[in-house]
């Protein structure tokens, strides 16, 4: 891919907002592009990490596994980055596993280039810090929810949150533009698949959501919030 095309893409990535065309041009050649098929593991928790990842298009899940049980920590889409922790924290390995949930086109920056770039750009460091603070807030909320909310409330809250993050207005409601299985939703919420299936059925019976083509459409947002 040409330098100009990468620059055009970087312009739309929040991490690089405030960067001039010349600055983006100077970093564009450092990115290596790779396309991964659905279900590919980019790295595993505990691996030595040497690359920073930026999603051009696709869908990536960040998760931790314990005794065959998985908890999903984050879902990343177009323009999101990950893999910075093992690069910023000296002597640490990957804190979680990254897997594509869709065919994904990804740009990678190697450790040395990432460090060089951070050293030369306070703007990038600030943007990185801002995004990291947002992720910390979300993680705090996840701890809160897992500690204080019952499973049903967590499922409802996560559907609401997904509708805020990925909702697209369609006729009859707000489409959560992600194909998630009940098991994947259970891993986000921290429960078992059967409970998710039960609550989703209840929400369909109460006409709060409909499910079309494995995707949830929230048809009554007010009711969802009330619950
Ligand atoms: P790293 O530890 O290098 O590899 C796993 C990546 O997942 C990590 O960098 C972050 O980019 C991302 N990550 C880990 N934990 C979270 C979290 N709680 N929320 C969002 N992203 C995370």
Describe this structure in words.
With 227 residues, the protein is an alpha+beta fold. The protein has helices spanning 3-10, 21-27, 85-88, 111-120, 122-148, 151-166, 182-189, 193-205, 221-226, and strands at 32-36, 41-43, 51-57, 60-66, 69-76, 81-82, 97-100, 104-110, 167-170, 173-176, 209-212, 215-218. It is built from nine helices and twelve strands. Strand 11 and strand 12 (215-218) form a beta hairpin. The structure holds adenosine-3',5'-cyclic-monophosphate. Adenosine-3',5'-cyclic-monophosphate binds at residues 49, 62, 73-74, 82-86, 94-96, 98, 135, 139.
Key structural traits:
9 helices; binds adenosine-3',5'-cyclic-monophosphate; 4-stranded antiparallel β-sheet; 227 residues; 44% helix; alpha+beta
Topology overview:
Blueprint: H1 3-10, H2 21-27, E1 32-36, E2 41-43, E3 51-57, E4 60-66, E5 69-76, E6 81-82, H3 85-88, E7 97-100, E8 104-110, H4 111-120, H5 122-148, H6 151-166, E9 167-170, E10 173-176, H7 182-189, H8 193-205, E11 209-212, E12 215-218, H9 221-226
Antiparallel strand pairs: 1-8, 2-7, 3-6, 3-8, 4-5, 4-7, 9-10, 10-12, 11-12
Helix pairs in contact: 1-2, 6-7, 7-8
The structure holds adenosine-3',5'-cyclic-monophosphate.
């Amino acid at each position: 891919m040409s330098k100009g095309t990468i620059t055009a893409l970087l312009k739309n990535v929040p991490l690089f907002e405030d960067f001039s065309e010349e600055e983006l041009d100077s970093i564009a050649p450092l990115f290596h592009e790779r396309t991964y098929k659905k279900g590919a593991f980019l790295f595993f928790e505990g691996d030595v990490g040497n690359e920073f990842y930026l999603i051009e298009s696709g869908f990536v899940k960040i998760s931790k596994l314990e005794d065959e049980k998985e908890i999903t920590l984050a879902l990343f889409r177009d323009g999101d980055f990950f893999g910075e922790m093992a690069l910023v924290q000296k002597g640490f390995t990957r804190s979680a596993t990254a897997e594509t949930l869709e065919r994904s086109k990804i740009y990678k920056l190697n450790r040395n280039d990432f460090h060089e770039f951070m050293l030369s750009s306070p703007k990038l460091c600030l943007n990185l810090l801002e995004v990291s603070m947002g992720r910390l807030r979300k993680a705090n909320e996840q701890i809160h929810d897992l500690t204080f909310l019952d499973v049903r409330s967590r499922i409802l809250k996560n559907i609401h949150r997904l509708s805020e993050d990925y909702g697209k207005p369609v006729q009859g409601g707000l489409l959560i533009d992600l194909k998630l299985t009940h098991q994947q939703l259970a891993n986000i919420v921290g429960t078992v698949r059967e409970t998710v299936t039960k609550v989703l059925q209840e929400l369909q019976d109460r006409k709060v959501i409909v499910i079309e083509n494995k995707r949830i459409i929230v048809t009554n947002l007010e009711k969802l919030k009330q619950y």
